Structures are given as structure tokens and as C-alpha cells.
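Troubleshooting log. The previous structure file for this entry was overwritten by mistake, so regenerating from the original sequence record. Sequence copied from the archived sheet and checked twice against the printout by T.R.
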Amino acid sequence: MLVSFYTLRFIHKTVVPNLRKNLKRTIYILIFGVLFGCSDKPKKLQIDRMKMDIEIYLEFEPNGYVISWNDTLCSEFKSDWNYLQKRPYELYCHIFNKEKDTLGYYRGLSSPRQFTYFRTKENTDSIVDLEFSVGINHFSEFLAEQSEDYINTFNEKFEERMEFKPIRIDLKTDLKKKLEIELVNDKN
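Regenerated output below.
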């Protein structure tokens, strides 16, 4: 097979410069990524505000409810169908009445989930306070794949639990509605 002079000239003038240009761009991207990103150390979690949806339903009579939420915590894991099992943090929820009696809670240490059950006192607890906080997902698939050094650093950066200001819900008016709430960091 004979390649003409014009074909070789075309390749030399068009293809070779593009290869050089793309190779330079790739090298610059790699250097930038290594220097300024791609950290293998965990970063301290900081959330000032977080919007999410909640729904509350009467699950069983009398006064037995279920609350479910759809949070945006660790949204980088949301593309996976099992992101609740992968993400290193999870959202805990405690439900109290006006007298600060605990009506229900979810605080991890089981399969990660975004719901919990609670039970109110008959004819007295129509107003409840939801107190959300961020905790470690102890069964995180992501954390299970990390080194011991990474885990130790992760635990050091998460010594203090992040808590949010309480959200007040009226069960008489807010039942069976999708509510958009905004959690505000308690330190703000």
C-alpha cells in the first residue's frame, strides 16, 4: 500500500498538532487534579442549611405515625440505587412532644433508612418537634473500603455531632402532606 506525499503532509499538518495539543491539555488536567483535588483524606462535614421533603402518615390506630424524609445529605452518592448504604453519614431524627417526652426516633445502628415510627399520647400530642442531626453511618460501604488511617481521620473530624434547629409540626394540619422544610444548623 502506497501512501501519497499529500496524505502524509496532511497527517503531519493536522493530526500531529492536534495530538500534541490534546496531550498537553491532558497533562495539565492531571497535574491540576493531583495538586488541587483528589485528596485521599476526609474533609470535615459542614452544613449550614439543608432543604428536604418530609411526609407524616397515620400508620396505625390509635396515634401511631410514620415520618419519612428525603434528604440531600451526601448527594454525591445519590446516583447509586443503594446510596443509603454507601454514604458515610446519615440523618438521625428524634420526635418529641411539647413536654419534651420522646415519642420516637431513628439514630442509625441498623440498616440505613429515611423513616421512623412514633406514637403520640391520646388526645394531647398534636404538636410535635422534629430534631434532626447528622451521624455516622456505621455500616457504610464507602467507609468499609477505606484504609484504617482514613477511618481514624474521618472519626477525628466528626467528633462533634452536627445538630439542626427543631422543626415544629402540627399533626392536625400537616398530616398526609409533602412538606418542604429547611434544616438550619444549630450553631448558626
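Confidence is low (pLDDT under 50) at residues 30-39. Archived copy saved in two places this time.
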